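User: Structure tokens for both sequences below?

Assistant:
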Amino acid sequence: MEFSPHNNIVKLCIQGMISQDTGKPEDASRIFLQAWNEAINDFEKFLAAYFVARNQENASDKLKWFETALEFALKVNDDATKSALPTLYSNIAKCFEELNDSENAKKNYELAASFKDKISDKGPFYHGTKADLPIGEFLTAGFNSNYQSELVMNHIYFTALVNGAGLAASLAKGDGVERVYIVEPTGVFENDPNVTDKKFPGNLTRSYRTDAPLKIVGEITDWIKQTPENLKEWKEKLAKNEGKIIN
């Protein structure tokens, strides 16, 4: 299942996180449990259980919910959810540590390490921009960030979600037509550290970066376009964002 900010369970999890951040843990707990009760597939159950787990006060309850999240994540078994396995195993290990079960803590830390930095995603991959470029052209790092204009980027970013690339195109600087190109990495790439294990576990948006060029091999013209209202909301969020870009 593709991660989407419009998914009802994702929206509930975001709402719960806002309650946490504003010092309302009881509201957060209620919202996360609502997400769990309304989840209808393995991906949604994995996500809801993860946030319910984070909001528990004792190690036993945390462990129960993190193991539930892991159970459903393993059932999903797609590239996005696999990226959350190191986080899930690490959290389970920490619970065992709190419960003075060193053997199971060690076992789960080892499992976390075995999945860390292993990217199984084979694409296809996309890059959103307002630049008009020919097929066969190479996209390279070294340009100013769309989100912090004074910052020169050391990496070029791309995603396996076409709608994510479409959003990037709509937020890109310039007056050109929004374009989503199909790209192929020419070198090694890594999970985008600006989104991986931030608000959500792992790299659910399948966002990556590389310091090697991306080759344009095609163009996509069909993706979910942002409404003027949604685009205005995204721009307002970016304007309020005071976090530093990991470059």
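Moving on to the next sequence.
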Amino acid sequence: MGKIDGLKIWSLNYRLMMTVISSVSPAIGELGIETKELFVLAEVDEYPHPAELAARLSMPKPTITVYVKRLEAAGFVRREIDPGDLRRHRLLVTASGRRVLTRGLALLEGAFDTRLANLDSSERAKLQALLEKLG
């Protein structure tokens, strides 16, 4: 085996993720949400302030603002005054947002599971351990 090429590994990982995302984007769109909005929605519980979302997702704050406004208009999130700091608003996932989130993540999981089926259980366990070590 030749030299381990970090760029090649990164490229393969990126291609895999984009293939999975592309394969389910139309179905996610049918839920009334874009794929990137789904990723934002998935982080709201843990990062309820837009600035935190931007940092977590490595997205510019104005981009997060656009996504949050769309999610709010769709009824998937709502804003409320943060009881810990009355000067700030925090985001909360609504019941309809939770349903869309669950369905969207299930679509992504199913598409990724299809790819993981190419690995046996020990390979999947090793892959998970390696990704956790890198993360």
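User: Anything stand out in the second?

Assistant: The chain has a mean pLDDT of 94.
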